Amino acid sequence: MKTAIIGTGYVGLTTGVALAYLGHEVTCLDVDATKVENLKKGKSPIYEPHLDELLSLASRNLKFTLDADAALRDAEVVFIAVGTPSLPDGNPNLTYLKSAAQSIGEKIASPYVVIVNKSTVPIGSGNWVESIVRDSYRANNPHKNSSFIVASNPEFLREGSALSDMLYADRVVVGADDQKALDVLRKLYQPLLEQTFESPAFLPRPEGFRAVHFLTSDLQSAELIKYAANAFLALKISFINEISELSEKVGADIQHVSRGIGLDSRIGNRFLQAGIGWGGSCFGKDTAALISTGKEYGLSMPITQAARDVNMRQRARMVEILMSELKILKGRKIGILGLSFKPFTDDLRDAPALDIGNRLIERGAKVVGFDPISMERAKKEWADTPIEFAPDAESVFSEADAVLLVTEWPEFKNLSFDRCAKHMKNRLVLDGRGHLEASKLQSAGIQLITLGRSSK
Ligand code: UDX
Ligand code: UDX
After folding, report:
1. Ligand 2 site: residues with CB under 6 angstroms?
2. Cβ neighbours of residue 268 closer than 8 Å, sequence gap 6 or more
């Protein structure tokens, strides 16, 4: 099917490449000329494992353009995947969504077009998007009569595993108030729902994985599923982090506690990894949006609010622990291992490393960071902060009064801690992700403090 994707970011590009790989004719539209030029050369603007490989496998079904007319004219399905970042008051910024809807209204010409909100949009926006498309269509095509419908198809992709999360999804959720739109999207996703596509060598189908649930609903339910899913995942993480602070006090080990509760099939063991907590473009934005939607209806959403409060506290706790160990931060040099908000991505949005770095700089410390993948992006996006950058992981330790592990990149586990220790002014490491092996650091004479474990 002729498919257009508006927005070639983490979500739009992953969706477009996967749909093209499934055999659909996909045209990806963006406003960022550099991104489009790089994509035309097969170069992805983001780091996502295997995206470049799948891009080249799907290239014959994929086009990239800045030209809305070329992208939308023949489209039967149009995905909107533009940014919906948070405004200061927690509401999402819908400027880009609006301009995407307007250009859809101007350019579509197929007899029946399904417009799909892939971006996370406030509950009830589907109708709003439809009215914008309608007004723009009427104003620009007075003598034509394409019919179109807006559907919601929220994404559940985790960065760093986005392609496998899409090709081998737990479920595809589609919301629309018109059965025909649901049928069109079922047809679009058919190869994925029935797992009839040939799985790429570098993204093998999980053992015994046969089919994907296709859940259809009305628009609002699909929109709320996205927010509720993210808020619940964020809550799970904040819950184990709340327990981790108590476990430090009582001398328990949060890894055992997490494993012990996670073995209960009603709880499940995923998203119970205690540590610095969540960052990224979704959990913070979606919990804020859910709370602001609740406020519109006079609801306070206390549990979702608590998930946010606990999460923010985790970052403050890293600084508090450092203060209690070093007493003075002024003039100290603190190293930060890991800048991306999580491993296997170069995404720095709401990265705990930036928040913690700024809190340390506010207290007069010097901060030097390293990340195996997101360094170039950090040097650009954090240019206006005094955060400095080290050429490699071990250099973060030289002359350091303390080193914080903030992102659990695998390579940090196997550093030569003996060599690192020799260059440290003060041999203290705070592990914010429960990632490092205590024995390796202890034998190097480094004091290790791990969030969630008592420091005895
Ligand atoms: C986006 C939303 O931010 C998120 O809320 C939703 O869950 C999925 O879509 P992401 O793909 O990470 O997530 O956004 P981003 O990486 O910012 O990419 C958005 C893309 O849209 C950018 O490439 C931007 O250039 C493009 N864009 C933005 C347009 O093509 N047109 C616009 O008017 C604005
Ligand atoms: C999340 C949701 O998982 C995904 O379904 C949604 O579509 C987009 O938002 P993402 O933010 O890319 O995906 O990554 P995820 O793996 O969920 O991690 C989010 C944050 O939670 C990261 O900062 C990670 O470090 C943190 N996290 C995750 C924990 O602190 N503990 C955990 O157990 C899991």
Report:
1. 155-159, 230, 233, 237, 271-273, 275, 277-280, 282-283, 341-342
2. 262
Nearest-10 crossing angle of helices 125-140, 95-107:
40
- According to DSSP, residue 157 is labeled P
> Which pLDDT value is given to residue 179?
95
Q: Which residues are catalytic?
A: 282
Q: Ligand 2: which residue has its CA nearest to atom 13? A: 158
What is the pLDDT at residue 144?
A: 85
pLDDT tens, 381-436?
999 999 999 999 999 999 999 999 999 999 999 999 999 999 999 999 999 999 99
- Report pLDDT for 88: 85
Q: Answer for the pair 287, 231: CB distance below 8 angstroms, yes or no.
A: yes
Residue with tokens 């996502």: 48
Domains of the chain (ranges; CATH) run: 2-217 (3.40.50.720), 227-305 (1.10.1040.10), 313-450 (3.40.50.720)
Q: How far apart are CA 128 and CA 184, in angstroms?
A: 21
Segments of the chain with pLDDT less than 50 = none
Closest ligand to C-alpha of residue 44 is 1
